[in-house]
Specification:
Layout: E1 2-5, E2 19-24, E3 27-31, H1 37-43, E4 51-55, H2 67-76, E5 83-87, H3 92-101, E6 113-117, E7 123-126, E8 129-135, H4 140-145, E9 160-166, E10 169-174, E11 192-197, H5 203-213, E12 217-221, H6 229-238, E13 245-247, E14 252-253
The chain binds zinc ion (2 copies).
Length: 257
């Protein structure tokens, strides 16, 4: 697991926008490719030709806006094997339209691209990797704010968290949430490795919820600049969670058996 970028929607000098890569059986699976995704893959010497799937949690730009350059770079490198894209269904038509506007029709990429709208049904990328999506409440405030606005007619407020089964390992990933981890309590079990945002949630609330939910390990990422990592680390130690909670940083690589 590569934490290539660990910032929220506001990148800073030492944290670029979020991009996470899961490597499994020599293939790459990208979760939420933000603006620097393709460059960060190159910096980490991860080969675009090995990308097998891309998963996007919701349509805020800091979770997908790097996708088009990732597809373009893969084309330039001569990728031939297919990519599956798991995408909020509300974004599929705009994505294909924008690819066309970028002179990048899918037919010209040189490799098959299969775009799947995210549903409640588990999606198997292959026999070793399954994504199970659950709607969360992250976009609910936008629903209220956009009520009656003509520009919002196509919006469906699809923000997802995922249980990811990779071989024998269970990950739970959430790009953003609304109120807190209790929204995804049903996904988290004692054998789950949790990867969760720290941008919109109160740190004390996250840590208190982790004491209750008890995933086997938690990686906090998607940091807002106002969050002081040193203070957060102190709070983690104070609560006796230092063995079970890791603050992600750009370039962090974690291996799982
Ligand atoms: Zn975000
Ligand atoms: Zn968001």
């Amino acid at each position: 697991m590569f934490f290539l970028g660990t910032a929220s929607g506001l990148p800073v000098q030492d944290r670029f926008s979020q991009t996470i890569v899961l490597e499994l059986n020599g293939e790459l699976h990208i979760i939420d490719p933000a603006d620097a995704a393709s460059s960060l893959l190159a910096r980490a010497r991860l080969d675009h030709r090995k990308i097998r799937s891309v998963v996007v949690s919701h349509m805020h730009a800091d979770h997908h806006v790097g996708l088009i350059q990732v597809l373009k770079t893969a084309m330039h490198l001569g990728k031939q094997t297919s990519i599956q894209i798991l995408f909020p269904s509300e974004g599929i038509e705009p994505l294909t339209t924008f690819l066309n506007a970028c002179y990048l029709p899918i037919e010209w990429l040189g490799y098959p691209v299969d775009i799947h709208g995210i549903t409640a049904e588990p999606h198997a990328v292959n026999e070793h990797l399954v994504f199970e999506a659950q709607l969360n409440k992250h976009l609910n405030p936008y629903r209220a704010r956009a009520a009656g606005e003509p520009f919002s007619r196509a919006w469906r407020y699809q923000s997802y968290s995922f249980a990811i089964t990779a071989k024998n390992r269970r990950f739970v990933y959430t790009g953003n949430l609304g109120k807190g981890l209790q929204e995804i309590a049903g996904l988290i079990s004692e054998d789950s490795v949790l990867i969760t945002e720290a941008a919109h949630l109160k740190v004390d609330d996250i840590l208190a919820e982790l004491e209750t939910l008890q995933p086997c390990h938690t990686y906090l990422t998607h940091f807002h600049p106002s969050l002081r990592a040193a203070e957060l680390q102190e709070a983690i130690v104070r609560r006796g969670l230092s063995e079970r909670v890791t603050l992600a940083y750009d370039g962090l690589v974690c291996e799982f058996d």
